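#onboarding

Welcome to the new folks! Below is a worked example of what a typical request in this channel looks like: someone posts a single protein sequence, and someone else replies with the predicted structure as tokens. Don't worry about understanding the tokens yet, we'll cover that in week two.

Example request:
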Amino acid sequence: MVGVELEPAPAPVALFNGASPGEVITAATDAANQLADIVRQRQLSKRIGAKDHIFVEAWQTLGSIVGVFAIKDGGVRELPWPVLAGLGEEPEDRRTAAHAAWEQHRRLLARRDMGLAYGFSASYRAVKDGREVGWGESRCTRSEDKWIDRDDYALSSMSQTRGQGRTLKQPLGWIVTIAGYESTPAEELDSEPAAVAAVSPYGALVDDAGDLEAAAMIDAIFTDVDGNALVRITRNRFQTEHLPDAAAKMLAAIKWALGTDAVRAKAPEDAPPDPDASAYHGAPPDG
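Example response:
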């Protein structure tokens, strides 16, 4: 039997060369401090919610500091349009979230009929010294309110920007955390979702995981809030942009409130001065 020599597996690539873990941490901390200085000087971060996230230029800067670069892996790919339901009847009350979702769906159908792309995805490999140390893919689509009316090339460009940030996050995210920033790239969060209706005409308000009761409850609570504001409210308070999920958490909060004295006003004179009753009785559960 002829023996077959197997090539040894390639040794893992280290971001920092050091004789001890302490030396590695020292080198990583030095890189993090340099990054933090550049981010502050050049304003390469954005506060989203209560946290600071850095832009792709900062990720690329850190990559240059430690010798990690994002290289295209397969190029940019155009994404097919999802199956969109018919527009349906326009809700009468323009102040409701349901009407905002209807309007977003109308705009999506118009962009599709104009022959514009739904969106693009881009994938990259993170490489150090010619060896792969990470991989990532991201996309930009018209399901985001900020991008619904933009040109195709703009969506393509943003998919590449996000793809680079997500790719560099794999090997470098822990250093960004040491620098005092969140490891999710800013471009991934800097968007407002629009309503994409694959089954029914009101997108995230009424989809496979939701129902008309959830949409009705949201509209009843937020009668005077437009759709984009409602998305921001649900994202900040319930950490989700999926309105049926937010509705379920609202119900849980209401049940909690009814089980305490947090909601007890029966007449205007009984109402507390602060409209947020939870300020007097502690915060409701996050669900």
